Amino acid sequence: MRVPSWAGELARYAFLSLLVAWVLVPLAIATIYAFTPLEVYYSDAILPNSLTAEHLRTLWVLGAGEAFVRSVFVGVLTVFLSFLIGLPGGYALSRYVFPGRDAIKLGIIATRMFPIIVISVSLLKTFFALGLNDTLIGLALAHTAMALPFVVLITGSIFGGIPRDVEEAGLVFGLSSIGVFLRVTLPLAAPGLAAAGLFTFLLSWNEVFMASVLTLTNRTLPAFILVSAFATPTEPIRFAAAFLMILPALLFMLFARRYLVTMWAMAAR
Amino acid sequence: MGSILYRISGNPTAKALILLSPTIIYLAVFIAYPIVDSFRIAFMSEDGTITLESLDFLLSSPLSEFWDALRYTFLLAALVVPVETALALVAVIVLFKRFRGRDAVVYILAIPLALSDVAAGLIWYAMLTGKGFLNKLLIDLGLIDTPIQFFGYANKELTLLAIFLAEVWRSSAIVFIILFAGAQLINKEVLEAAEVFGASFYVRLRHILIPMLKPSLQAALIIRTLFAFQVFAVVWILAGRDIPVLAGEAYYSITELHRYDVAAVYAIIIAVISALLGLVYIRLFRETLRR
């Protein structure tokens, strides 16, 4: 029996609409409730007819503002450190064939597989000994360990996508090999690297386990929310916290659209 | 001096190792050493003798929820991973052919991947709490009179359902993206040839698309199972310790009990489960590479 093609089309669009709603409705609801006046939220009204920034302000005063700034600091430092350390490695993996290359690559993939929970206890004790406990630098060092395997693998694949011919052309025209890297390879790789940098920032921004374990007074945003936000009985304040958390993620989605699928398939591996 | 530099710069192996050494050293100090150190923290007392006190605490202290944590962690993994894999697979099949608006749909389905688990927990709290969207909607439609209570110690089954929904919502995107990226590599000509020779949609699906997606499917499955054993923030936000999980118990051992040895044992248990799954993954990965 053959199903008429319009019925198939209809079923497909119905299913896709459901999927899209499944993703977007919870996001929209949490965002709207973050800005819903208290008396409306605690009434039976499903959606508000006016919005307020009051919950966001309250949350900010409770300490989310400082936590937000700390999270940005840790995220930026993590991106800086992991690229400083990992970018040369990624370049090496993409450009040189050498004995042990596959073993090193596999080893890097294996470290990504290891749950970060495992390293937190030991890092906490070491940080105590070094006076790095409850510091943002300590947390950034831990986040760098988490992000580094991703950075090496993703920069490796970005550099791998740049043809060797253009580098050789640079050499022919008299650039040194460092000159070729800085003036030919790097500019070509820049858009991909920027997207990878943003994603690395998000890895740090979203990480909550090490953040709550390694900091006590200097809490980053997710740690602050996990520990403090539930002290408040006012539910819309919690949703305001969710809104603050997802804001950079949505901005990232906007900027890195082109690289999304390739990079995420990579990041998930 | 100059000739040594020249020799190094001329030797690709030396160059590669110099460029890779910062990464290797950093991972050794911040990942390999802490893993080894965890065993010392877990099983060695202050005076350097080996002790199983931490394990004893884990198994028999009234403060420990180990068996429940193990049970719930496995239960959640067993519920979440198959459902989200099936969901993602169907989505990839439906999105296989190009059509107007496909990119936008892919883009939207990928959004949860960028979101934190903390946010995902809170978002589903907004959906399901007493004054949440679902309850208000059902009351408005006249389907229920009093709100369904998803949260609180007395409502564990429904809390588990809430965690399940939040986890599927959050992490289907990972499976979806891996499968979708895999589907992009499939040779469209093979499928077109099958269509020309009259293969039905089902035959094309069963004998071409799914076998060709198999490597991605295996990868996605293992990765998600691995992460499922680290489930933490969504559970902590929606259930606290009412529904204990392994990572949550590790967190609790550190922050509330200050028992680093116990936390280390939890970490090691999660790591051992992950390592076993990781070995399977690497074997599959090698097979995929060989193909």
Q: Strand portion of chain B, in percent?
A: under 5%
CATH class of chain A: Mainly Alpha
Q: Architecture of chain A, according to CATH?
A: Orthogonal Bundle
Query: For this structure, what is the CATH homologous superfamily of chain A?
Result: MetI-like
For the terminal residues of chain A, how far apart are their CA atoms? 41 Å
Tally of helical runs of chain B: 13
Domain count of chain B, please report it. 2
Arithmetic mean pLDDT of chain A: 89
Helix share, percent of chain A: over 70%
Shape of chain B: flat
Structural class of chain A: mainly alpha
Count of strand segments of chain B? 0
- What's the story with the biggest beta sheet of chain A? none
Q: Describe it for me?
A:
The complex is a heterodimer of chains A (269) and B (291). Chain A is 79% helix and 0% strand. Chain A is mainly alpha-helical. Chain A has one domain (63-268): MetI-like (MetI-like fold), CATH 1.10.3720. In chain A, helix 3 packs across helix 6, helix 6 (136-160) crosses helix 8 and helix 8 packs antiparallel against helix 11. Chain A is globular. Chain B contains 13 helices and no strands. The interface between A and B is large, with 93 and 93 residues.
